Amino acid sequence: MKKNLVLSIFILCSSVLIAQPKVVNTAEVVIVPFDNGLVMNPSWSPDGKLIAFTFEKHEGIWISDSNGDNIRELSSDKGAGFGYSWSHDSKKIVARTVSKIDGRRYHNIKVYDVNTMEEKVLFSERRDLKGLPQWSEDGSRVTIDTESGVKSVALRDDSLKSSILEEVEDFDFPEFEGRYIFNRRLSPDRSSTVFQVSGKGLYIANSDGSDLRYLGLGEQAAWMPCGDYIIVTIVDDDGKVITAADLYSVDVKTGDYSSLFEDESFLSLNPHVSADGAYLLFDNPQDGSIYRLELN
Questions:
Q1: Residue range 89-103, pLDDT digits in tens
Q2: Is the pLDDT confidence value at 2 over 50?
Q3: Where do the DSSP E strands lie in 147-189?
Q4: How far is CA 135 from CA 52, 179, 263, 287, in A?
Q5: Could you tell me if 186 and 244 lie in one domain?
Q6: CA distance 22 to 25
Q7: Threshold 0.85, pTM exceeds
Q8: For position 151, what pLDDT does the model report?
Q9: Is residue 125 classed exposed, middle or buried when 0-12, 13-18 and 19+ CB atoms within 10 A define those classes?
Q10: Which of 146, 160, 206, 238, by CA, is between 20 and 30 Å from 118?
Q11: Which domain holds residue 88?
Q12: For residue range 148-164, what is the model confidence (pLDDT) as tens digits?
């Protein structure tokens, strides 16, 4: 899996001149609100054929074709749309859901099959989950950070019928002890990770935790496919509500920021770049829709 992934990235990046991404058209609406709810947090499937998204308060996960047509519900679980993740083969989505029992809040980890609409519970009614679930490098396992360490659930087959729990190694950043690390994003070749630290900003490190570097401001980082740039949202607020949210590209080697998309009629949140780097999705809470930008 890793060799195929690296080869695909090499072919894509060697066929184009690696340059700072730029927007080549105006924002085009792809999915509009329905069922009296705002749509948000869009994510391309790795093969570019599908878009996943959620409703306000991250309730449920929905799927559409790449042009926004053929919308169908994958899950109605509360919290599922907060930090979900596509499998490498675009066949499944893993998510952390929320349930309440006797007034107490619990987390569950579920895997959803986007073709059969079946689901499998990997972790049920847990209060010790610290992060969001992620797919392993070969796509056969789901990992999750818990208070007792990182756990890995190996899916035995495509049918989601059985699994086995394993322990895996993890790294920590002593520099950020007592602070919350969130919105971790692995680079396409899985060699680097960007993440936010509460009260500190945006950082990048090698995927083993080495070579930690501060990048600056920015939220909700999305990698360009060649791994040389990320797209981030920079948000302003008045202490109560968001007053501006614009998209910037960041050169991860130099830390240089460049404006990508600024428009007063948009609050551009939750950017996500397609695997070929040709399009970017974001949501706009101003009108509750999901938009697409073409990139070059």
A1: 999 999 999 999 999
A2: no
A3: 149-155, 163-167, 181-186
A4: 16, 24, 35, 33
A5: yes
A6: 9
A7: yes
A8: 84
A9: exposed
A10: 146
A11: 52-170
A12: 878 888 876 555 554 55
Task: Output the average pLDDT for the chain.
Answer: 89
170, 190, 208 - which closes a domain: 170
pLDDT value at residue 196? 94
Instruction: Report the 10 Å Cβ neighbour count for 189.
Output: 18
**Nearest of 20, 21, 27, 22 to residue 293 by alpha carbon:** 27
Neighbours of 290 (CB within 10 A): 24
Do 160 and 255 fall within a single domain?
Answer: no
Q: Are 228 and 253 in contact (CB under 8 A)?
A: yes
Q: Is the dihedral of CA 35, 40, 44, 45 positive or negative?
A: negative
d(CA 1, CA 10): 14
Structure tokens at 111: 């895997």
Contact 40, 52 (CB under 8 A): no
Please, what sign has the CA dihedral across residues 180, 167, 187, 53? Answer: negative
Say whether both 90 and 132 belong to one domain: yes
Most confident range, picked from 166-175, 180-189, 246-255: 246-255
